[in-house]
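Example 3.2
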Amino acid sequence: MALRARPLTSKQPSESDETLKINQTDSSDDEEIKELPKPPSSLPPPSSAPATLRQRAVSQTLASTANLANLLPTGTLLAFQLLTPIFSNNGVCDAATRPLTVILLLLLALSCFLFSFTDSLKTPDGRVFYGIATFKGLWLFDYADETGSAATLPDLSKYKFRFIDGVHAILSVLVFISVALRDKNVVNCFYPQPAIEVQEVLDIVPIGIGFICSLLFVVFPTTRHGIGYPISHPK
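Structure, written as tokens:
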């Protein structure tokens, strides 16, 4: 009696086996991902692109202009900031507004020059008087000896005109010019479309003037406290 060979039946993988294999594969992938080295968290954030030379020059110019403004009389600087946009029509000048802007700038420069010779004093009784320095002393604007209190005034000959006052007056005018040349309304009024060489001069000259004037103000400080400056005490 011959034995019949029993056919081999291949076992088909069930869905549960395939799901198990997939889960095992996913878990092994997760473990490999977890084992990957993590980037250190202490790395600094990416820095922004370094500022160009022109941007640094502009920022330094604005900062130096703000510092130079402290050397000008407060009233003159305030008048310049308020009146320049009006007289120059916000930088769009014509045949009428351009001469008016020139006259305004000349008057403000003259005020910077004259205010450098003014001074103030505070008497022991608390009164404040303003005057202008002359070759003999301080000539007071608003002083009237009606109460016979002339003895309360300090020696006015100490406030007389000195050579350094003229130097400070010229420096104040130069500082005002450097501030005016950095104002966009003034520049657009006289140079609406400047050439490359003119634009370079407008960028360099005010910086040079401001640097030299600020250095001279530090070397030769002023002792005047006139109109637009803090009040001085009796000397």
